[in-house]
Structures are given as structure tokens and as C-alpha cells.
Specification:
single chain; alpha/beta; 7-stranded mixed β-sheet; 6 helices; 7 strands; about 15% strand; globular
């Protein structure tokens, strides 16, 4: 009986191991599917902000908050829900401007309402930030999103963490691109013109949070 008990216990361990393995695989497959859709939406948002920043520069001759501070100015674009878990870990001296004032600045200069767009990932996962980041310092600005999958315009940071970054100067080696370079690039247009499998779900998220900073 003692021998049989050991055999049964070993069988139990093996079966438990298989169950955990397939459970993990199932989770990763679902995550892959969701994030493939989310990346499509993130790139749509990237293009939306790129157009706004290009329009702002055309009207103002500078970028939001440019030349206003002696240190880099950061805007972390987060919903009120995402902000709850956010911690600014940048060790270098910088100024942080609340995204509310970023949207107000765009609206004031462009003379129109600005609908806010946020990363559809409510909680950060796989070590990847769930925010969009605008930064301006001296003559240059940067706008970054963080993708689950790579593409020809991303810089890989870690597993499931690929940064796609807009700037006012091209630096192909550093994976920095101007909107002038991107907007007519066939590979970029192919990425931009995809439709998410659950586009309606993401459209509802956009609608829910389009005035988030104004309501908080």
C-alpha cells in the first residue's frame, strides 16, 4: 500500500505539472491575441498624436513646453486608473507636467477640443509601461509608445517590450523617426491601416476615456 501511495503521488505531481503547463500556455495564447489587437490601437494613437504635434509646431513654431525649463520636461499620458500604480523612477533631474495641461496646451494652440488617447493596457504587464510618454528638451521632442510585438520602427528593450518613438529628427540607428519620414512609408501605412479583431471594444475604451483628465 505504501508503494502504491508513492506511485499515485508521482502520478498526481506529473498531472499537476501538465495542468500548470497548459494553463500557462493558454494564458500566453490569450495574451498574444489581446496584445496583437492592442498594438494596432497603440499605433493608431501614435499617429493621432504625431498629427497633433505636427499641427501644433506649424502653428506655434515650437513643441509643447519647449524652451520653458532648463531640464527635460516629461508628460506621462495615463488615465486616472493607470495613475494609481504609476511611479516616476527617472533618476535624472526633470520636470513633470500633468497630462491635463498637455491636453489643454494642445487645445489652446490648435483652437479645438482634443480627445485623449491612452494605452489600452489598464495594468502594466511583462515589465512594459502602460503609458504614452511625451518629452521635450532644448531643440528636440520625443513621443513614445510601448508595444508587445516588434515592427520595423521599434527598438527592443526586453521580452514583449518594444519602444516606438517619434521625434523631430530622424536617427535610424536609435530607432527615432520623424512624422515626415513615417507618414509616407509603405510599411508604416500597412501597420497603421490594420483593423483590430475587436476594434469595437477598443473604440469603446477610447470613448470612455476621451475626456479623462477633464473629469478628474
Amino acid at each position: 500500500m505504501k508503494f502504491e501511495g508513492k506511485k499515485l503521488f508521482k502520478v498526481f505531481l506529473v498531472l499537476t505539472g501538465f495542468a500548470l503547463f497548459f494553463s500557462c500556455q493558454s494564458y500566453r495564447n490569450m495574451e498574444d491575441i489581446y496584445q496583437a489587437d492592442a498594438d494596432i490601437v497603440r499605433i493608431q494613437h501614435f499617429d493621432y498624436y504625431a498629427q497633433l504635434l505636427a499641427e501644433y509646431y506649424e502653428k506655434a513654431g515650437k513643441y509643447p513646453f519647449q524652451y520653458e525649463k532648463e531640464y527635460p520636461v516629461y508628460v506621462f499620458i495615463l488615465t486616472s486608473f493607470q495613475e494609481k500604480d504609476f511611479r516616476d523612477t527617472n533618476p535624472y533631474r526633470h520636470y513633470t507636467v500633468n497630462d491635463k495641461y498637455f491636453f489643454e496646451e494642445l487645445s489652446d494652440v490648435l483652437g479645438k477640443d482634443i480627445y485623449e488617447k491612452y494605452d489600452p493596457q489598464k495594468v502594466s504587464s511583462d515589465g512594459r509601461p502602460n503609458m504614452y510618454i511625451y518629452m521635450v528638451y532644448e531643440d528636440n521632442f520625443y513621443f513614445a509608445i510601448h508595444l508587445y510585438n516588434d515592427n520595423p520602427f521599434t527598438k527592443n528593450i526586453a521580452g514583449y517590450y518594444n519602444k516606438m518613438e517619434l521625434s523631430n529628427e530622424d536617427d535610424i540607428e536609435s530607432r527615432l523617426f520623424t512624422y515626415e519620414t513615417l507618414k509616407d512609408d509603405p510599411q508604416y501605412l500597412k501597420l497603421l491601416n490594420r483593423i483590430a479583431n475587436k476594434q469595437g471594444f477598443f473604440d469603446e475604451l477610447d470613448e470612455q476615456y476621451k475626456n479623462d483628465s477633464k473629469n478628474n
